[in-house]
Design goal:
The structure holds 3 protein chains of 3 kinds. By secondary structure, chain A is mainly alpha-helical. Chain A contains 12 helices and no strands. Chain C starts with a helix and ends with a helix. The relative contact order of chain C is 0.14. The chains are: A mainly alpha, B alpha/beta, C mainly alpha. At the A-C interface, helix 2, helix 3, helix 4, helix 5 and helix 6 of A face helix 2, helix 5, helix 6, helix 8 and helix 11 of C.
Chain lengths: ~280, ~425, ~300
């Protein structure tokens, strides 16, 4: 026993600290969502007098004709399509840019940097969307999400693809496999580890996005989940229990993504940094 | 008066990037169905719901869908963006005065000067929703007064008299502090609440320099240069130096501050009477412990209240349902609609700008206190209703004074610099 | 002429057409609005109307009283958050690739906040940091009581002497350090075991290993963490806005929040000018870092 303690003392230090620092806030969210409105003002680590979690969830889901349920459906659709698009278009572009040096690639590098740095211009973007009849549509928001996430995704894909030996595609090119088919048949299947990284980061970014739906997808019927948070925060100012119940609910999808991909998150990145 | 002109309570969102939650309406089937955008303060939500129910009952076949928007600066932004991008609801309720002017009314709003229902509206309301001679809005709700909410029990216990001058006010504060009660409550967590000392002082400014508003608009008067105008800034500085604020004033919220004044944990809270409905719902048992007096002035002979004119209800120029929108807006100017508003809270927050509007007899004490000033005709509109200029950063600059980061003098100069942007944006002459 | 023609004949297997979809989306929804906004930064723009005023917005912008605070805070925030993320992230990564038994569990726990909504996190922490009701100060007060001190907890987000900016930066690190940790873990995994073994043979200790092998070889990961979190830090304001609104007063304002306030106030031209300034500010600072790391990577 003594030996066990001595050998694993780091665990006995690290685990409690980790729990305290990283888990406690989530426990607080959970506990607050089990309380009634009055108790929720006491932000302490205790359960409500009565365990009201289910009732709070019901109230939240029923609010404003089920705006939260609608929001979950909308956010799911937007997130899913955006992520699929981001994965495909960014990896295609990254493939070209990492393989073919030249003026265009240099230009693309500058654009990628710009995409990471430049804060988007809101109202001109609304005008563009209106010109294309995409304002207030989910398609419009999806394009926006793709445009804003592209730089980061291309960056990650590029560093991964540059670790794939060029000989592979040279061999394929000999067989007449070039361009899109080269990408689709040879390269894309090799990208799976890094896809995980991109899927996790972009799905979370899109799902948690707050600003862009606010600007580009106004309308109650178009609400996304982060907007419901706002709704509870402003409309139920004195009911922290409902607000935290909503926070709890919208934390579930990232939790699911997390559970599915947890183990692969690191291995994806690891694969990405292996030098070919 | 950025965030303040609301009946219930303007929310300064601690959330990031907030711009507007609920927004445009579903497409309408017939032009008997319209949408109505209003801010999401609890009391406005309740009133809107009741109004729509009464309207739909009185007009079978007509339908109004209420759409909520945030209050405060985020709401301002949302309203402007909606108008600019042509997605505004058929009817919307929004501040009158300087914020209304910033909407480019002649371009974006439907003129209603000659509508038959305008005869229901007291003509004294029209200037705050007009450009030149063209009128664009109808009043929503009552006028309210800005001044000091105080706890009557504390006053009774310490045998204090309602002050009319700043010196009397400070003498009271001294006794209150000695009794172990916070003399003045501030609530900087909701930043907009910091502005009352300056904004509600306008009655006093105006009586000292009657042409202040016109000269201010013409870039000839400055807060830092006019001693009467500077007083509002100095009041905050003085109170801070004497440590008269509640200890946690930097993180107190508006709702908590109302609790404090109602329960007597603090004696004074500079605020407007739009807070009364919220006190009634938060602390119904203590509502009658809250009284109201005008912001004290430098002379006993000057004693009046600064008034906030109600918000307006407007119709955007590009609505497809103008007829139905006008019908609804017209209905809201009737005495009947006023009755519905009264029935929601059980009392009126102050005088209406509607002819033949009834005011229930049972008024809360603080509102009765306010009405006395109206009866004496000792009122002046807040600066934002007589000048289009209102800088966006006043609330933050005043918080700096309250926290002791800036002197009153420096803060006033900073605010004078802040309004330049607004004046230029509006294209005013002389800036 | 003939030369270039013959060059073209050998068709590259990497057709630029593959980059077209993302290029078009990026052009239409990002580049064009950005260019349009450059123009509008030189106008007085009310959304309803605009008037060309040259560089007046830029002059006005630099007169902004809170701008000096904004520039300073932006830099501090970027440096503090990215610095802490590098240090803590690397430390955690070393811990989590080491002998720990609860590795998997701890890694999950550290990483999970990355996935949670910033708004939700900001809101939760502003509740935790409330001077009166917050758990943090309640703990401090009762701790003080137990040793006989009658204390008030600090106003984490409101006390002008405490710099609320640092409180927010702390939350930013809390939320983002998981990403840095994972990137470092990936970097550490690429270092061949043999290097360490070789050093062991030479009698090198733990510190030697860290200094001579880990630190230099984990450099690409460091670069990624620094660039991502620094750019993020300079640009970010959502968390700041969620927790302090740039306040109290202007104490925790950063350039992005100043811009947002101009935008909110309806000074669209001015706000757009602010965006342009922020763009150049970030470019001027991160540009050199980016190229520095890029060059190093190519050398490696």
């Amino acid at each position: 026993m003594k030996n066990f303690l001595r050998k694993n003392w780091i665990d006995f230090v690290a685990v409690p600290i980790g729990l305290f620092v990283f888990v406690a806030p989530f426990v607080l969210i959970f506990l607050t969502s089990t309380k009634n409105a009055e108790e929720s003002f006491q932000f302490d680590f205790s359960l409500g007098e009565e365990f009201l979690l289910w009732q709070n969830i019901k109230t939240v889901l029923a609010t404003n004709d089920g705006i939260v349920i609608r929001a979950f459906i909308n956010s799911t659709i937007i997130t899913f399509i955006s992520v699929v698009l981001i994965v495909i278009v960014s990896s295609m572009a990254a493939f070209v840019f990492s393989r073919r040096p030249g003026k265009w690639t240099t230009f693309a590098n500058v654009m990628i940097l710009a995409g990471l740095i430049v804060p988007p211009a809101i109202v001109p973007t609304i005008w563009v969307l209106q010109k294309l009849n995409l304002f207030k549509t989910m398609q419009g928001l999806i394009f926006i999400e793709v445009a804003y996430s592209a730089a980061f995704a291309i960056l990650i894909y590029k560093s991964f693809i540059s670790s794939i030996p060029k000989e592979i595609d040279e061999a394929a090119a000999m067989d007449g496999c070039t361009g899109f088919s080269l990408y689709r048949r040879i390269i894309f299947p090799l990208l799976m580890p890094v896809n995980v990284t991109i899927i996790v980061t972009t799905s979370v970014a899109v799902f948690n996005d707050f600003t862009n739906p606010l600007y580009f997808l106004p309308g109650n019927e178009n609400a996304t989940v982060q907007l419901t948070l706002f709704y509870f925060q402003s409309a139920y100012l004195t009911q922290y229990n409902l607000l935290f119940t909503d926070i709890l609910l919208i934390t579930i999808p990232p939790l699911i993504v997390f559970i599915i991909f947890n183990k692969k998150i690191v291995s994806g990145l690891t694969a990405g940094s292996v030098k070919g | 008066m950025k965030t303040m002109m609301k009946r219930g309570f303007a929310l300064t969102l601690p959330l990031a990037l907030v711009f507007g939650a609920a927004a445009a309406a579903p497409s309408q089937a017939a032009d008997t169905e319209i949408t109505w955008l209003i801010d999401n303060s609890q009391s406005n939500q309740d009133v809107a719901k009741a109004l729509v129910a009464a309207y739909e009952k009185a007009n079978p076949g007509y339908k109004v869908t209420v759409v909520l928007r945030p209050g405060g600066a985020d709401g301002d932004n949302l309203v402007k963006t909606k108008l600019a991008t042509g997605v505004m609801e058929d009817v919307f309720t929004y501040n009158s005065g300087s914020l209304f002017q910033a909407l480019a009314p002649s371009k974006n709003l439907l003129e209603i000067t000659n509508e038959p229902f305008m005869k229901n509206v007291l003509s004294s309301f029209n200037p705050v929703v007009s450009v030149g001679k063209k009128v664009y809005g109808t009043p929503f709700g009552t006028a309210v007064g800005g001044g000091i909410l105080y706890n009557k029990k504390v006053y009774a216990k310490l045998k204090l008299k309602v002050p009319t001058t700043w010196a009397e006010f400070m003498a009271n504060n001294k006794k209150i502090k000695a009794a172990g009660i916070d003399p003045v409550i501030q609530s900087y967590k909701d930043t907009w609440t910091s502005q009352l000392f300056v904004l509600a002082d306008y009655y006093n400014v105006q009586s000292a320099s009657p042409n202040f508003a016109a000269n201010y608009t013409a870039n000839k008067e400055k807060y830092a240069k006019n001693p009467a105008a500077l007083r509002g800034f100095e009041y905050i500085e003085e109170l801070k130096k004497l440590n008269y604020f509640n200890r946690d004033y930097a993180s107190t919220t508006y709702a908590q501050a109302l609790d404090k004044v109602a329960l007597g944990q603090g004696a004074h809270y500079p605020m407007a009477t739009w807070a009364i409905p919220q006190i009634a719902s938060q602390q119904p048992a203590s509502l009658e412990n809250v009284g109201f007096f005008a912001q004290p002035s430098s002379k006993a002979s000057v004693n009046g209240v600064t008034v906030w004119v109600p918000s307006g209800t407007y119709i955007p120029a590009n609505t497809k349902n103008a007829a139905a929108a006008k019908k609804f807006v017209g209905w809201m100017t009737t005495a009947k609609a006023v009755d519905v508003m009264n029935s929601v809270e059980g009392f009126a927050g102050g005088p209406y700008y509607i002819k033949n509007a009834s005011i229930p007899n049972a008024l809360p004490g603080a509102v009765k206190d306010l009405v006395k000033y109206f009866d004496r005709n000792a009122t002046a509109p807040a600066l934002e209703f007589v000048s289009p200029i209102k800088g966006p950063n006043l609330e933050k600059i005043l918080i700096e004074v309250g926290l002791g980061i800036k002197t009153a003098k420096k803060a006033a100069a900073d605010y004078d610099a802040d309004v330049v942007k607004q004046a230029k944006q509006l294209g005013l002459k002389g800036w | 002429m003939t030369k270039s023609k013959s060059k073209k004949k050998i068709k590259s297997p990497y057709s630029y057409r593959l980059a077209a979809p993302v290029g078009i989306i990026f052009l239409v929804f990002f580049i064009i609005p950005t260019i349009v906004s450059f123009f509008f930064s030189m106008t007085r723009w009310t959304l309803f109307d605009w008037e060309f005023i040259g560089f007046e917005n830029f002059i006005q912008y630099f007169k902004e009283a809170s701008l000096a605070i904004g520039f300073k805070n932006t830099l501090i925030y970027g440096v503090v958050t990215s610095g802490l993320k590098v240090i803590i992230g690397l430390a955690l990564a070393l811990l989590l690739t080491g002998r720990l038994r609860a590795k998997g569990f701890l890694r999950s726990v550290v990483y999970f906040p990355v996935l949670v909504s910033t708004i939700g996190v900001g809101f939760t922490f502003s509740v935790l940091m409330d001077p009166n009701y917050g758990v943090i100060n309640k703990a401090i007060v009762s701790l003080g009581k137990s040793i006989g001190w009658e204390t008030y907890g600090p106003g984490w987000l409101v006390d002008p002497n405490l710099l609320p900016l640092f409180s927010v930066a702390f939350v930013d690190v809390w939320k983002g350090v998981g990403m840095a940790t994972v990137i470092f873990m990936a970097g550490l995994a690429t270092i061949p075991r043999e290097y360490y073994e070789a050093l062991e043979v030479d009698g090198g200790g733990a510190w030697d290993k860290f200094k001579n092998i880990t630190l230099p070889l984990v450099q690409p990961a460091t670069a990624a963490v620094v660039i991502l979190s620094f750019i993020g830090g300079l640009r970010s304001f959502d968390l700041i806005w969620a927790m302090t609104n740039g306040g109290p007063g202007f104490l925790s304002d950063v350039i992005a929040s100043i811009n947002y306030k101009q935008y909110q106030a309806g000074f669209y031209g001015l706000a757009t000018a602010g965006n342009v300034i922020l763009l150049f500010f970030v470019l001027a600072i991160t540009g050199p870092i980016y190229w520095y790391f890029n060059r190093k990577e190519q050398e490696a």
